[in-house]
Design goal:
- By secondary structure, the protein is an all-beta fold.
- It is 0% helix and 50% strand.
- The chain is built from no helices and 11 strands.
- It has strands spanning 3-7, 10-13, 18-25, 32-39, 46-51, 58-60, 68-73, 78-83, 92-100, 115-116, 120-125.
């Protein structure tokens, strides 16, 4: 059973920073891409960043490019999302997602990920 546990959310002022973490457990994660997907109240889920298992390839949506940085530590089965220059529109529940997509691949489609965490709330006050 794959388990993903997010942490690091909270309340921050606009312009501030937060670092989210997602720890994976339950099996070996070789070849697993991981992604961060957020959902704001009343809106659909939006995949904002993804990273291949190797870490060589990464993706950022236009809304976060230049402000967010995704990284991973495969020795700890953990993926991180460093969020800088936060804006009020970044307010959402942030979910970690994972699935086995190959060493150098990720997907920008949320439905390609079958394992999800419970989410962590990020609130940015203006």
């Amino acid at each position: 059973q794959v388990q993903l546990v997010e942490s690091g959310g909270g309340l921050v002022q606009a312009g501030g920073s937060l670092r989210l973490s997602c720890a994976a457990s339950g099996r070996t994660f070789v070849g697993y891409a991981m992604a961060w997907v957020r959902q704001a109240p009343g809106k659909e889920r939006d995949l904002v960043s993804a990273i291949s298992w190797s870490g060589i390839t990464t993706y950022y949506s236009d809304s976060v490019k230049g402000r967010f940085t995704i990284s991973r530590d495969n020795t700890k089965n953990t993926v991180y999302l460093q969020m800088d220059s936060l804006k009020s529109e970044d307010t959402a529940v942030y979910y970690c997602a994972a699935d086995r997509l190959g060493r150098n691949y990720y997907s920008t489609r949320g439905y390609d990920y079958n394992y999800w965490g419970q989410g962590t709330q990020v609130t940015v006050s203006s």
